[in-house]
Amino acid sequence: MAWPSLSPSELLFSISCVYLFIYYFFHYFVSSKHKQPTVPVCWPVVGMMPALILHIHDLHAWVTGIFHVTHCNFVFSGGWFPGMNLFGTCDPLNVQHIFTSNFQNYPKGEEFSDIFDILGDGIFNSDGDIWRTQRVKAQKLISHSCFRAYVATSSRDKVEKALLPFLAHATKQGHAIDFQDVCLRFTFDITTKLIFGVDPNGLSIGLPTVPFARAMDDAMASVLFRHGPMVIWKLLQKLNLGTEKKLANARKVIDSFVEETIEKRRAEKKEMKQIEYMPDLLSSYIDDNETGKVDKFLRDTTVNLMLAGRDTTGAGLSWFFWLLTQNPHVEEKILDELKSVPKSFTSDGMVIFNPEELTKLVYLHASLCEALRLYPPVPFEHKGVVKDDMLPSGFLATPGVKIFISTYSMARMEGVWGKDCSEFKPERWISDNGKLKYEPSYKFLSFNTGPRTCLGKHMAFTQMKAAAAAVVYNFYFEVVEGHVITPRFSIILQMKNGLMVKVKQRNVM
Ligand code: HEM
C-alpha cells in the first residue's frame, strides 16, 4: 500500500494538528492532575464534554474544584450534544430563588421525567397539579401519628432482630464485612415493610440476594447513564442494548414484585373485612376509596416512595459510621450522651434503645446532620426552566438550559459553611446554650428546600438514630487497612468500594 502524497501546505497543516493534539493532551489530560482545578476548555463541537468524561470517576470532587474557582456558579457547554448545556450552581441565594421564591419557573421538567420514566407519574417525577395532589396525600399519611409509631417499632425491631445479631455474628467470625451493604439492607428491609407491609429479610446471616433490591440497584445505575447525551441512551433503548436492556429487565422484576404485593394486600384486606388496621402505606392507599385508586397509581406511588426512602437513609448511615471511624472523639461524645438514656436488653444481652428516647439527644442529632451535610445522599439535582429569569448571581436562565445544583459542593464552600467547611464537626449544629442550631434548608440542602422538601426526614432520622445508638453502644469498627473510601458517581451518594470493616464488641463501663 502506498502512502498518500501530501503537498507542503497539507503536510504543514497535518503536523500542526498533531502538535496541537499532543500539546492539549499533555496540557489538560496529564499535567492538569498536578494543577489547581480550572474551568474546563470549551472545544468546538464537543464543548466541555472531554473534560467531563475524563473526570466522571471523581465527578463530585472535580465539580467542587470548579465551583471553588468560579465562586459557586459556572456555565457548562455540552457543545452540540442536546440537553448537555447546563448552568451549575451551589450558591445558596440561587438555590433559594430556584426552589422557593420562583419555584413555578423551575419544574423538574419533561427531560427529568423521561430520564426517570421507571417512576411513572409518581411524586418524584411529576410537576404541577399531579405532583401537588400526591404530595398532599403522601404528607398526610407519612406524618400521621399511627404511621410514625409504626416507623419507630419497625426500626427498633429491625435493629434488635437483624442488625445487632448480624454484627454479633460478624465479631465471632472475625471476617471483614461491607458495612455499607449492611446499612443498605437494613433500610431496604424497613422501607419495604413500611411501604408494602412485607419484610424481605435481606439483612440476615448469609446476606441473601433479594431480586427486588437488585432490580432497583440496576435500575438506578441505568438511569444514571441517562444523564449523559440523550441520543446515546435513546439509541440503546431502541436497540434494547447495554444499560437500557438492564433497565428493561429491572423494570420487569420491580413491576412483578409490586403487582403481586398489591394483589396479596388487597386479598388480605378483604379477608380481614377492614376490621384490623394495617399500618403500611400501600394498605392506606388501597383504603383510599374516594379517588378509586387503580394499580398503575399504586405501582407508581409505592415505587417512588421506595426510591425516596431506601438508599438515601442507608447511604447517609454508612457515611456517618465511616466518619465515626475517622473521628473517635465524636464517637466518644455520642457514647457519653447515650449513657444517660434508659436502656433495654436483647435476649443476647445487647443494649437497645427506645426510638422515642433518642429524639431528645442533641449530640447524636447534630452528628447525623453533619454527616448528611458532608455526604448528602442526594448529591445533585437538576431543574428545567420555563421562562427567562435572572438568578441572584446574575445568570439569565432561559428555557432549554438545565440547572444543575450540587449539594455535595455546597457543603464544601468556605463562603457558605466557613473555613472549616470540610471538617466533620457536629459542634457547628449546637448553639452556646446547648440546643440545636437552626440552619436554613437552602444552605443545608440535604433534604431539599421549598415546596418539594423531603417528606421522609422524620422517618429517616428515626431509622438512623435507632441503628446509630445501638451499634455505637454495642460495637466499634476498624476500617480494613488500605481500604480506600471514595464516593461513587451514582444517583445516591455511596462509597465506591463499600465500607470494609472489622467489627469489635464494645464493653461500656
Ligand atoms: C437521609 C434520608 C433522606 C434524604 C437525605 C432525603 C432527601 C431528599 C431530597 C434531596 C429530596 C428532593 C429530591 C428531588 O426533588 O429530586 C427528597 C424528596 C422526597 N423524599 Fe426524601 N430523603 C430521605 C429519606 C426519605 C424517606 C425515608 C422518605 C419516605 C418515604 C422520603 C420521602 C421523600 C419524598 C416523598 C420526596 C418527594 C417530595 C416532593 O417531590 O414533593 N425521603 N428527599
TrEMBL record:
Its cofactor is heme. Signal peptide: none annotated. It comes from the Eukaryota. InterPro entries: Cyt_P450, Cyt_P450_CS, Cyt_P450_E_grp-I, Cyt_P450_sf. Heme binds at C454. GO terms for biological process: lipid metabolic process. One of its GO terms (molecular function) is iron ion binding. The chain crosses the membrane at residues 12-30, 42-63. Keywords: Heme, Iron, Membrane, Metal-binding, Monooxygenase, Oxidoreductase, Transmembrane, Transmembrane helix. Belongs to the cytochrome P450 family. This is Cytochrome P450. It comes from Rhynchospora breviuscula.
